Amino acid sequence: MIIKIPAQVCYKKTCLSTIAMVPFFLLFLMIPAIVGAQDEEMTDEDTKERARFELEEIVVTATREEDEIRKTPKNVTVITSEDIEQASSNNIVDLLARESNVNLRSFFGHDKGAGVDIRGMGDTYVSNVVVVVDGFRLNSPDLSGPDFSSIPLDQIERIEIVRGAGSVLYGDGAVGGVVNIITKKGAQEPELRLYGSYGDYETYDSRVSLGGRIRDFTFNVNADYYDSEGYRENGYLRKKDAAVQLGYDLGDHLAFHLGGSRHDGRYGLPGPVSKEDIDSGERRVLTNRPYDFGELSDERYTGGIDVDFGKWGGIRAQGGYRHRENPFIIGFTPLLSKEDQLDEIEEKTKYLNVYYKTIYKLGGLEHKFKCGMDYFQTDYSREDRLTEIKNSDVEDMGYFLTGEWSLPKGFALSAGYRKDRNKGVYRTDVYKDFFDPNPPFSYLYSMWVAGTPTEKIWKNEAFDFGLTYLPTSHTTLFASYAQSFRNPNVDELAEADDDLHPQKGIHLDAGARQRIGDLVEVSVTLFQIRIKDEIYYGEDPVTLTSINRNYDEKTIRQGLEADVKMYPFDFLYLWGNYSYTEAKFENRETYVPLVPAHKAAIGLELRLMDSFLLALTGTWVGSRYDGNDENNNLYEKLEGYKVFDVKLTYEYKSLKLFFGTNNIFNELYSTTAYSETYYPMPGRSFYGGMEWKF
Q1: Nearest-angstrom CA–CA distance, 65 and 357
Q2: Measured between alpha carbons, how far is residue 36 from residues 154, 292, 473, 534 in Å?
Q3: CB 554 within 8 Å of CB 531
Q4: Cα–Cα distance, 399 to 318 (Å, whole number)
Q5: pLDDT given at position 450
Q6: Is the pLDDT of residue 6 over 50?
Q7: Where are the domains of the chain?
Q8: CATH architecture of the domain with range 18-693
Q9: Which of 189, 449, 563, 674 holds its CA 20 to 30 A away from the CA of 594?
């Protein structure tokens, strides 16, 4: 395995020195011996579990079944419900953006329309990062991206982030990584939760949930209401959420589950601000689009069954349905009625996945095998102001199989393969005016005229190989080699080169995880992604018009991710991470826009007496090139920024009170800009509230 990294240090060009690789390979060589000696001396008391240590955490995303992180040949992060409760973050995207090589992309300063970019995908992150909620793929078939605002933060049991290729198990678009969100199902005694908070920008947040287990029946029901005027003029967000999760265990070998959720929201679309206004505390909050807005109705339903055949393995099957409606106005004018200016998106998606898994023994060692299929079908339409309707019928079928084999002396080998077929039928209907000249009733009339359907069929393959070495119970060394793919989405095909086709990526990862007693846990990962025919929106050199097309040259993303977690004292928890990402075009010395080379985050949780908890987080993101500056010479770079948040929590029996401040130092910053027009993020804000459990 070779990962090419420039040998020269060049701070201004953000080159990575080979010196940075030395500690990593020393770690590979020295840690097993050091820790092996430590393990002989440690007692059970010394090695007691720490809630935030992840080496022995059980995850499901990387292998689609329960497995320990230490046995996974990928860089994996787990965020638990305890992490969420104690964190200073107020929404999912802010919470995710604390993690290494996970970058926030936000247009409005809240979670509507916001997302996360993993491993430097840049402006196409919405199509190169897969988000799954309880087995349901949240990615839409267009460029709108997963709607994180439709998932109430307090209903999340855990979040698993798997960086790198995931196409074998998750298919199209699992390039930068996979974010798997698992909601609460009610696995304990019945509990009622009431939550309420108020903050700056007239922000109200109220939640109620009831969940638990009664014998073999589990349930969780929740309702949430959020209302905020927002940081900017016309930056409001109002949303309502309701969901129910039901489960029933019929003995030890059969389980059923059903779920449903509905999200309704309305939000302002304030648009960007100019370069002259972005650094002004007064002018950056203004807008020249006071009447642009969007609405969203999103329903999701799921159902599934788990069958355990004992030594013969087990089967899991799950199906679901989604209906999304999204009317909006961009560029409002008082000269027309509101109805004549509405654009509208409608999506209806059905999906089914079934897979079989078994664990068997051979040669005195344990091995695993899985095979399965995924199917989804989406009817999608986009109506543009009574001028045209873009219709799409997309169908995708994928088959996969994976194996994991335990080898002697602590080694384990994993491999997987996927065959995928994507078929799309696309049609544009046009609203045309017609004149009937026949007397005596000559008149002008308008009607929809159906366009000619176009069919696209793409066949893709993906594979994944991994090797893990476990020299001790607290040490993991791993390496992996994989291929990913991504198909063009419906928005990209609407304005595309005639030969627009899927992209393919080759991924190399190598890393180490190490835990030292109950004090410290460290992980380091090196990665490289080489993408051929990457899909992008850019100017055609012949027609000088912007369309979606494939790059003629490969893009290369490579770098390093490092995480550390520490318990220096029982009352103090410290964590930090750093990531370096070099995202470049292969044949030129230019960098992929909107990808910061450097990112770091730190945090602490200080227990003050038994009832008070102080949580502080800080995130630093380096500079990035403008989203429309592929050649790196047209516009000023987005400045780097540092944001700190703090939260103080007081607990007394079943009552919790909290107070927090976001962006303590009132940093003026933006995560996104195009042609030096910027989308400002909120300044300093305060909030407080309470939660009551009974």
Answers
A1: 9
A2: 41, 62, 9, 45
A3: yes
A4: 15
A5: 85
A6: no
A7: 18-693
A8: Beta Barrel (2.40)
A9: 563
